[in-house]
Amino acid sequence: MLDILKDVWFLFGRLFPFPTKAGLRKVGNPNRQSPVLLTCNFELTVRKVVQALEHDHIDAWLLVAPTKGINVWCAAGGGHLTTDTIVSVLKTSGIENMVDHRQLILPQLSAAGVNVWALRERSGWKSLFGPVDIKYLAAYLDKNRGKYLSQREHRCVGFPLRDRFVMGVNLGFNSLLFLILPFLIVSIWINGLWWKSVPLIFLLSLFNSVLALWLPGRPGVQKGFSLGLLVSAVFVLISQTAWTMGQWETLGWTGWIVLLSTYLGYDMPSWSPLWRADVKELVLGMKRTHVEVVPIRCIGCGLCKIVCPANVFEQNPSTKKSAVVNMDACQACGACIENCPNNAIKNNFRAGVCSCPTCTVINSVKSLKRKTTQQKKGGKEPAAAKRFSEPPA
Amino acid sequence: MRILEQTPAKYDHGMRILTLGRIDRVKREIVSAWVESGHDVLEVGCGTGSLAAMMIRCGAHVTGIDISAKMLATARKNAPEAEFIHMTATEIGKLGADRFDRIVATLSLSELSEDELDFVIRISFVLLKAGGKLVVADEVPPSGWWKRFLACLIRWPLAALAFLLTQSTTHALKMFDGLVEHAGFRIVYRRVYLFGTLALIVAEKA
Questions:
Q1: Which of A196, A246, A390, B21 is 20 to 30 A distant from A299 in Cα terms?
Q2: Tens digits of per-residue pLDDT, A160-210?
Q3: pTM for this predicted structure
Q4: What is the per-residue pLDDT for B127?
Q5: Which of A98, A92, A85 is nearest to A127 (CA)?
Q6: The total number of structural domains that make up chain A
Q7: Residue A71 belongs to domain spanning
Q8: A161 CA: distance to closest CA in chain B (Å)
Q9: Residues of A in contact with B112 (CB under 8 A)
Q10: How far is A206 from chain B (nearest CA, A)?
Q11: Quick check: B76 and B108 in contact, CB under 8 A?
């Protein structure tokens, strides 16, 4: 019964942290040579990892890191799954007495917060980044690892239909949650707007998410707007033929649909693993996150390529040095910057700031404030603008 | 996902809101009653170094550790005489056994997971000299259901206010007494504040 309730909650409320007990767990019958895997303590993640391992009959030690119930990628980006967290869980979980080897397999998406070089120095554990999705773990643990690493789909995040559906439901649920108060206020004047908008928001969220790959325009506001036009065209067609709706009422609803869809489209990128919220560029004309490999500093270890979930980097086959080939796909997760052993990645990225619309707006306002106070003081160059244009030394 | 960035400047204010200003009194009590001149003190999770500065003024030699580099930078300004090290609480074993007269932790142990807490308490026992004391001030779940209910009523608005204004929050320390006694300590002093939600606990290495 409890499990069913939890499943229903995970369908709607994935945004919210859901902690489970951290520490060491056994999956199957692990021995002293079995692989040691690490994950976050978001309950759904732990459950899925255990299921996947049991399905493939893998005997392993599973370290559940205390990440405050947040999923791996968000915890790594937000400072809850860091090198410190892992050093700590390795020491306290008792894993060091259970195995003979010192090799830890991390989720690839934890790279945004975990520096493997520092981890090795501080804990003595050699860590490897595993696959981006737990379902590839069996292939990963296979002896043929060299071949495995070249397979792009094991390293890059995808957004399949199933995920798009779940995220659409979540987008709808959370948008309703945040829109309840303004809606109640508005519905005092406009009768029926509130209860008619509830299914509308859900449908538009679902469409925005499920159709996200095929809608015309750039991800974000543009895709949302084009969906709004599409849906309102269908709406006009139905309302003028099947229902008897007045012209002004039709016009009102059309505008409302486009507005809602544009708003939901603007929020969509933060629910997807493929796109970044572009509020910064859209509203404040700020520079997009940019990374660049400095060839002189690059030692050709290829770690940036391994940790990148968006296939931004490519290695030169002869010199082994990395180069940025696909900047548009960059998620600004910061994994490459965190893990580069020689600081070879020039960037205008500020670590510890996630790229969801809420954070982006708040940080933009913060930096704008800083800019204006600086100008009032008579400083020549605003500190905030400088940070975004120059890489840190 | 970090919604807002927590900054050292705001942290102390946040803690004051959450404890209705009581944490400053607890810190003063720690310094006046439990720390003496010449003591070797380790502060676990020193934060902005406000307690470290008070202990320095009373003549103790203070070593502070914290997980946040930003907090440590502020702490170094607030208490320049103290020694600050950037490490997690579970790494304090590196500092050497039988070295400290006091290990002090205010509102920091509750940030740890169950395993980590157990580990840190056991390591603290090793780090302390014989007769040394572990001084902990932290949020605790109050005893008795009606007190817990009352604490919830008070805590929720306070936590919301503190988070909105300062983006910092605390958690309650659970099962502390059992872990401490299991590690070999003897609890010698215990005082609760704010309807039993904030406790000052002193445990001695026998």
A1: A390
A2: 999 999 999 999 988 888 777 777 777 767 766 777 788 888 999 999 999
A3: 0.79
A4: 92
A5: A85
A6: 3
A7: 2-154
A8: 24
A9: 66
A10: 23
A11: no
Question: In this structure, what token pair is assigned to residue A95?
Answer: 């894993």
Indicate if the alpha-carbon torsion angle B88, B12, B26, B193 is positive or negative: negative
From A236, A270, A304, give the residue that closes a domain.
A270
Contact (CB<8Å) B115/A79: no
CB pairs under 8 A between A and B: 58
Nearest CB to B116; choose among A79, A88, A122:
A88
Residue B29, chain A, CB below 8 Å: the answer is no
Of all helices (H) and strands (E), which one includes residue B185? strand B185-193
Number of residues that this document lists for chain A: 393
Contact B84, B66 (CB under 8 A): yes
> Which residue in chain B is spatially nearest to A82 when comparing CA positions?
B67
A386: in domain: no
What are the per-10-residue average pLDDT scores of chain A (393 residues)?
Answer: 86 86 91 92 92 90 91 86 91 90 92 90 89 85 61 81 92 83 72 77 92 87 92 89 80 90 88 75 62 86 88 88 87 85 77 50 62 58 38 40
Chain A residue at shortest CA distance from B94: A122
Tens-place pLDDT, residues B41-81: 999 988 888 999 999 998 999 999 998 888 898 899 999 99
Q: Which residues of chain A does B114 touch, with a Cβ-Cβ cutoff of 8 Å? A: 21-23
Tokens of A76: 């790594």
